[in-house]
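step 3/5: co-fold with adenosine-5'-[phenylalaninyl-phosphate]
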Amino acid sequence: MLEQLDTLEQEALAALAQANDPGALAAWKQTYLGRSASLSTFLGDLGKLPAAERPLAGKRGNEVKRTLEAAYAAGEERINAAVLNHALQSEALDVTLPGRPLRRGRLHPSTLILRRIYAIWAEMGFQIYRSPNVELDDYNFTLLNIPPHHPARDMWDTFYTTEEGVLLRTHTSPGQIHAMREFAPAPLRVILPGMCFRYEQITARSEIQFHQVEGLAVGPGITFANLKATLADFARRMFGEGARTQFRADHFPFTEPSMEVDVECFVCGGKGCPVCKFSGWLEILGSGMVHPTVLRNGGYDPKVFSGFAFGMGPERIAMLRHGIEDIRYFWGNDLRFLEQF
Ligand code: FA5
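step 4/5: write tokens
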């Protein structure tokens, strides 16, 4: 009987040495240490042995059990280490490989130039006032002294919605009325940036969608000289001390008198070329003294208050600063253009 235990022990240890994966280990445990294993049956049946044999058989039986349990624990450790080792080798992760570069987003050139414009006007005490892209006909035209059937409406043809009198604004000037109605009768100094829309032919200089930054200052005693000095200062801050500007008389129904401001052409340096239509100058903004009718529509008494206004095109300004020859690049979504900023 004790010999049987010896044989069982040897057989079990030999089988364990052959088990090389968790499945074989579990099967081994079931066979040699499980509830129906012959060793378990042997130990369970000790009581049936003659009393004289019991102590020795029990001692040896328990010894074998402890040996097998210890061998199982060692086998488990050996197999777990092998499994881990295999995983580490087959799923190797090379931490020395350089990472894949993330593609970084960047700001659109219009956003960049708008931020520059905001900073310049902020330094001169102008705060940003937002007004809607979708406007009423009244604000885009009538309250700006452009009554229905006025020929000036042709210059600013737009996209109309199916709702009567609701349109996409053609300029940021309707924001003047919104701002004045909110501030009057207090003096104000604001810029009104935003997108404008025009139903017109797309060319190298004109888009159907573009930004404008409107400016408006209203207070007692504001003069045309203040307007000229302010715009000349803006041009110097934007284009540098040496930048040459030109003020040209013009007409807008909502300002009187009115003028346009040109900056020397970046392509030809003022000699004349196709980009500046051989004039040597590029127009960047329209401006003037706020018309008394518009002041009144905004809630100010034109006998007490005066003001100046201007509307500039940031894309045109960006073209001048960076030598961009075609405005269509701005909304063409071509990364070769956009990645240069
Ligand atoms: C106006 O829109 C007036 N509201 C400006 C103004 C405001 C005058 C306040 C007086 C007082 P104009 O249509 O010229 O004016 O446009 C002003 C500027 O917007 C232009 O100088 C130009 O820089 C820009 N702009 C106009 N049309 C386009 C276009 N199709 N594409 C790109 N920029 C444009």
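step 5/5: annotate
The longest helix spans residues 54-90.
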